[in-house]
Amino acid sequence: MRRIPQNRIQPKISTLPRQRSEAAAFLDIYKLVVEKKRLQQELENMEQRRQQIASRLATLDAQVADLEKNAQQIRSQTDSTDTALKTVLKEPSQPQNNRFKTDSFETDSFETDGFETFFLEY
Length: 122
Hints:
Layout: H1 22-89, E1 99-101, E2 106-112, E3 115-121
Antiparallel strand pairs: 1-2, 2-3
């Protein structure tokens, strides 16, 4: 079976050849006009779909940018809160074993990979 390349649209072929006449010529014209209209409609549909996809991509880009901005703001707020918390909790007279007791609470502090976790015991 002969394989047709995908990049080229093949015209429809009649199985029986027609005699040369004015009616056959008009029939061929009609077939070509119908195919032309079909292809134009397909092209319009593809353009509409392309515009929908481009619009959706723009929306997704805007959402990603907003979420990245929010994440950056949260990160900067967390960093400033962590810095303030470290300055309040870390005093020079505290022991070096990361376990200390104050009048109101007891805290265990573990620091790994840039994150610090506090456990408060009541």
